Amino acid sequence: RESVTPLGISAAAKTTGIEAVPRALESISCVVPCYNEAENLERLLPPLSAALALLAPQWEIVLVDDGSTDATGARMAQWTRQPGVRALQLSRNFGKEAALTAGLQAAAGQVVVMMDADLQHSPAMLDTFVRHWRAGADVVYAVRTHREAESGFKRLGVRWFYGLINGADRFEVPPGAGDFRLMDRKVVTALLALPERNRFMKGLYAWVGFEAVAVPYVPDERAHGQSHFSPLRMIALALDGLTAFTVWPLRAVVALGFALALLAFGYGTYLVVDYLMYGHDVNGWTTIVVSLMFFAGVQLVSLGVVGEYVGRIYGEVKQRPLYVVKRELGRGLQEDA
Ligand code: UDP
Ligand code: MG
Q1: ipTM for the complex shown
Q2: Of 185, 103, 122, 130, which Cα lies nearest the Cα of 7?
Q3: Model-level pTM?
Q4: Residue 63 pairs with which residues in a beta bridge?
Q5: If you measure from the C-alpha of residue 120 to the centroid of ligand 2, how many angstroms do you get, rounded to a whole number?
Q6: Given ligand 1 and candidates 228, 229, 234, 237, which is best to mutate, with the most ligand atoms within 8 Å of its CB?
Q7: Which of 78, 126, 170, 275 has its CA 20 to 30 A from that of 68?
């Protein structure tokens, strides 16, 4: 389990002691997925490039335009005239997961940071991230310390989700951790080597392992626009995660089948005994109709659960690329004069 430690003393350094001498940071890449973030880019890029220039002699910002329909593409293109700013424009909207993967694939730095474009992730945190990395951590991730004004319903859903996804495996997906994180080059390599199309990033981060340090933070308000993740999209994302990392729904279906068969057997025995001993006639029309509908429902649900997995297998088997790049602009890592 990762632990939150005071600045500069990473879990890795404490437990292994191998990183007695702090690592020197030569180059850093910052990947920013953008979907209709024109206003936010203007505000994010000046403080972000200033922060990066202080951290390493070589730095780059990799902006990924995830098929924006506003002025994001044009603004990005202007920004790429600045040294250190690169842009990758995808041919359409592929989703944040795919945009992040595109950015990671393009990033060339010794460490890679990922952050949102909407200023919810403060560039001021990068200094803390890098300090943990210098001290030996391979992954430094930010953990939300409080969830902003959420309904009890959503909180319950989130608790269930983490309970279910962490129920079985040898690794744990930490609640509250998102895509705001720093990763060493070897972690990025491991992440990109995972071949699946279903990029449930939170799960993939946890799956690759490495020495990770959590840094608590309170996300800022979104500067402009609205969140792209509606409750429905969150549920779809949770389903992606659960099917990608667990097979318990399939086992639950098996268990349910067994339980119902046992119940039916018991009831059947009772009916036979009842008939033989008391000679009761055939009746119970209601029982038949209700149980017919009940079992038909259970069967359809079970088929649906199996279908979810089959559909995902189909998606993986097609081997389509995760994203298509339309245009690449700007030059990346270079000396910061
Ligand atoms: N994003 C993206 N593609 C999408 C949706 C979102 O690249 O299809 C980007 C978005 O521009 C932002 C980040 O992902 O930089 C996080 O999105 P958002 O702020 O809407 O999510 P939230 O903060 O509510 O989780
Ligand atoms: Mg946001």
Answers
A1: 0.95
A2: 130
A3: 0.81
A4: 32, 87
A5: 6
A6: 228
A7: 126
Amino acid at 67: G
The CA 262 to ligand 1 mean position distance, Å, reads 48
The ligand 1 atom nearest the CA atom of 93? 8
Ligand 1 atom with the shortest distance to the CA of 99: 7
Residue bearing the CA closest to ligand 1, atom 13: 116
- Please state, as a whole number, how many other Cβ atoms lie within 10 Å of the Cβ of residue 164: 16
pLDDT tens digits, one per residue of 50-107: 999 999 999 999 999 999 999 999 999 999 998 899 999 999 999 999 999 999 999 9
Cα–Cα distance for residue pair 194/100, rounded to 1 Å: 14
- Condensed to tens digits (0 to 9), the pLDDT of residues 266-286 reads 888 888 888 888 887 777 777
Cα distance between the two ends of the chain: 41
Pocket lining: 267 vs ligand 1, CB cutoff 6 Å: no
Q: Sign of dihedral through CA atoms 236, 66, 150, 120?
A: positive
CA dihedral 51, 55, 60, 65 (to 10 degrees): -40
101 lines ligand 1 (CB under 6 A): no
For ligand 1, atom 23: residue with the closest CA: 227
